[in-house]
Design a protein that fits this description.
Strand content: 35-45%
Largest sheet: 10 strands, antiparallel
Number of helices: 3
Helix content: 10-25%
Radius of gyration: 20 Å
Length: about 260
């Protein structure tokens, strides 16, 4: 066997193997989905199994381009808390990061309320999003019309004071108001020290202007870290409940994992 050919083959195979380890990415654009319930389509699951999972549905023409055939997932309030979980987990070991990115827009109605209302909740956890192995981050609208991010990934953190105009000023409309599209980005690094993470959430407009960001503590109570630390693979999802305000549309989801250069 030619020595140069062998070296070349080993080198190329090694690069492919390293690339596979370095980054595993899933892309979900929803355009090849059927209109209607997302439950059961291409690996999506709604937990707990319920007779009416219609809080999560695929709608034609609501994608980021607004054109016929461009579909998006619409999340509406549900009578009981429901979680929809994405098709496949990605690997997430110490020294690795997982990254979730997607486009979203929200629809809200004007009106008075006395406390912050959730409009969208993003989940990160195991395939069932069980309480001890699930983190949440929420997009909320406040009574004064301002917006904020809040959640626990792993420790509790909040970024408030986002002006109404930055997302959508519900106070200026008479009926249902729909925002522009925004880009949501979540990066969760599992560091090499046990139960230690570096997690950050950012929201951008489509001109890549940063609207708001939220960074979480590296450590927290054991109950908030142990379940997630022990996961070797991690999934993403979304939550709905009856106290949510308005609806949200999700499109162009990218979910990946990769090695951290300096964990």
């Amino acid at each position: 066997m030619n020595g140069k050919w062998l070296v070349h083959t080993v080198f190329v195979c090694g690069l492919a193997w390293c690339a596979q380890l370095a980054c595993a990415q899933q892309v979900c654009e929803f355009n090849d989905y059927s209109d209607g319930l997302v439950e059961g389509q291409k690996g999506w699951n709604v937990w707990n199994k319920v007779p009416d999972p219609s809080a999560f549905s695929i709608v034609n023409g609501l994608g980021a381009t607004g054109q016929a055939g461009d579909r998006a997932m619409v999340i509406q309030p549900s009578q009981i808390p429901l979680k929809v979980v994405g098709p496949e987990p990605v690997r997430w070991m110490p020294g690795e990061a997982c990254e979730l990115e997607f486009y979203f827009k929200v629809g809200v109605v004007p009106g008075e309320f006395a406390y912050d209302k959730r409009v969208m909740t993003v989940l990160l956890g195991n395939a069932l999003m069980t309480e001890k192995a699930c983190w949440e981050v929420h997009l909320l609208v406040a009574p004064d019309g301002s917006w904020k991010l809040s959640g626990g990934m792993p420790g509790e953190s909040e970024a408030g004071g986002v002006s109404p105009d930055a997302i959508l000023d519900r106070r200026k409309v008479q009926g249902v108001a729909v925002s522009n599209w925004f880009r949501f980005k979540l990066v969760a690094k599992k560091l090499t020290d046990p139960d230690t993470f570096a997690t950050r959430v950012e929201v951008y407009d489509l001109n890549s202007k940063l609207i708001t960001s939220l960074e979480f503590p590296k450590t927290a109570e054991k109950a908030k870290t142990a379940g997630m630390w022990n996961l070797s693979r991690v999934s993403y999802g979304f939550l709905s409940a009856n106290h949510y305000h308005g609806l949200s549309c999700i499109d162009n989801v990218k979910f990946s994992s990769y090695s951290i250069a300096n964990p």
